[in-house]
Amino acid sequence: MTATGDRLSTLARGLSAPKGFVDASLTAPAVKAIRLLGGIPAPEALPVEAIARASAQLWQDPDAAIASLQYSPAHGFAALRDWIANREGVDPGRIVVTNGGMHGLSLSVLTVVERGATVAVDDPVFPGFLWALEVSTTGILPVPVEADGFDVEHLARRLAAGERIAAAYTVPDFHNPAQVSLSAAKRQALIELAERHGFYVIVDNPYRELRFAGRDQGVAVFNDSDRAIHVNTFTKTLGPGWRVGWLVLPAHLVDPVIRLRNRLDVHTSSVTQGIVERLVTGDNQWFDRMVGDATALYRERAGVLVDALHEHLPGAFEIQAPEGGLFLWPRLTDDGLDPAALFRRAAANGVVYQQGEFFAADPRQRSSARHLRFAYSDRTPQELREAVRRLAQAF
Amino acid sequence: MTATGDRLSTLARGLSAPKGFVDASLTAPAVKAIRLLGGIPAPEALPVEAIARASAQLWQDPDAAIASLQYSPAHGFAALRDWIANREGVDPGRIVVTNGGMHGLSLSVLTVVERGATVAVDDPVFPGFLWALEVSTTGILPVPVEADGFDVEHLARRLAAGERIAAAYTVPDFHNPAQVSLSAAKRQALIELAERHGFYVIVDNPYRELRFAGRDQGVAVFNDSDRAIHVNTFTKTLGPGWRVGWLVLPAHLVDPVIRLRNRLDVHTSSVTQGIVERLVTGDNQWFDRMVGDATALYRERAGVLVDALHEHLPGAFEIQAPEGGLFLWPRLTDDGLDPAALFRRAAANGVVYQQGEFFAADPRQRSSARHLRFAYSDRTPQELREAVRRLAQAF
């Protein structure tokens, strides 16, 4: 054996090591720390019994069982695509089933983002998107996320000043981490800007189904534009473990995305598609009922967390009550407080969360560092109250 | 809406349209044509009952069910990696679970093949590898596949003459399409050449388990070298639909591959890993028994096909009896026969197969075009005999 590690591709060498966001997730500072870290479904909200039934039916149906064990079309299972297309209000030919949301982001980036190009991104931003983007470019144009989402006017001004972008990335519903939703007016404005300037909008929408307050701002404006790639997934509803999601693509991007998949992974697992297809198409109300139950759980948990923060740490945070999704993004009101020191004390005291600084797209902006990201979805009300008590002690 | 299709990345624009290999697969020339097209498992060989049991156990075990519905490590499920590592004779830390063999090839290419670099490939070659390669390069150095596999001496001469390659690609066991296996001596010689010249060997080994005659030439030489990436999959044993495979990586490539996966698809489905892990680890003899039953089926089918060709088309082909795998690669003995015209007549007569020309890595070499690739695995003996009768009429 010769010892070597020097013949990696430029691409492989260029991928950054995990930092910040991931490091914090890996920290296990106190035994039995309460983890408010990941935006993952509550175990109680995952429909294990229905999955067991759908799965048993699949393996007992000889034709379906064999179809789930053999190769299947790169676009995805037909009845599953039909069901998704019906919910999205588009032609099934525009749906491509993916291996989850991150895979959808990655396929989008590889298809429309030129190497070294610039992409406008939410600021604060979901760090996972910057990782996906790194395969093509590290050139980003951070765009502030306001109370009604991505600042379209800011981007318009930058474009008017001569900036050129290949794509704009935003999470329109229950933003990660900033919890807000993009207003209907801004959705329209963003798409018009994209059509005028000829860039793509990568619309990352994993939390869309999880609304428990406020008004849906609509996705038809995305699905009706040939400048929007609408990325979605069953991760936050049926569970991350499936690795099943979908893209709503402009018709002209379907073939390029399929050609890419022919090279990368052939198709999404026929086994997972076979089970998920049965789950969602077997009873047409089932998915909405299941999501309704999960959302009721998240509404309760969000409320418990907000109430506990007001009770135990009155005035310490500026807090917006979430309208859906899995995150609370409170802002520290005391500008003299060091958030890194607070995190260390909290961790030592048995509660961990994501520090806001990890979500800054522009490392020069200091506003994200004044925030904490709490994921409340997979903690019980009792754990959430205890987490806040421990956090209060850290203050 | 503006009509646009002109803002694709250079990468997306550069991916070729499907041709040849895929077109032929899509041809359905005669109603009820007998298809000898794809190297896929026989439906009868797929262990549906065992899968149903493992799956039912998984969903009835509350902890395992939740683990299969949540995120899981990018490297793969621990017990599954242990089982694979034990069979491969390597440390589990060197195993990365993939979404099947093609995904393993794609990860290998993206990790070690520089953009625009040259890669030595089998000639004839599995066309899927050239597609996977296209994401990084179209630069290939075709290396003839002989009766004992990849012509290592040919490559050595080209390297001595100044040629530089990033990697060499070969299918060592039951070659697709050429049916042969790489001799133990050549395996050793290829690895020594790679270590001397500092390139990687991408060892694509999906048919390895399916031996029914002859002697195993061993894989320890690959698994012991830090210049070999050993790509494998459950596709030809448990079925292509799982999209579960694995890489045996040199230790220094594990982190680069994981960083890439962090960007591309996060991890292989926890659901499929959960079921496959139960299948293979529940009873330590089960996998070998299952593969033994499947291989007995393929031995019988290969024999039926060879016998029928000798009986109905005596002297028409030069035939080697397969020692395993899913393919027969007979050579037409009549140099005056037009293989494309033969294919059209055969298709019109109700039998389709892959034409040899689609597997030529070097389009100037004409020897592949003198071959036919018959996949016998998923056709019954009766269908195989009828296919040969139809082919004989086409002659």
UniProtKB/TrEMBL annotation, chains A, B:
UniProt cross-references to InterPro entries, sorted A to Z: Aminotransferase_I/II_large (IPR004839), Class-I_PLP-dep_aminotransf (IPR050859), PyrdxlP-dep_Trfase (IPR015424), PyrdxlP-dep_Trfase_major (IPR015421), PyrdxlP-dep_Trfase_small (IPR015422)
Q: Which domain of life is it from?
A: Bacteria
Query: One Pfam annotation, family name?
Result: Aminotran_1_2
Molecular function per GO = transaminase activity
Cite the entry's keywords alphabetically. Aminotransferase, Pyridoxal phosphate, Transferase
Required cofactor(s): pyridoxal 5'-phosphate
The Aminotransferase class I/classII large domain sits at: 47-391
Task: Quote the protein name from its UniProt record.
Answer: Aminotransferase
Write down the species. Answer: Phytohabitans aurantiacus
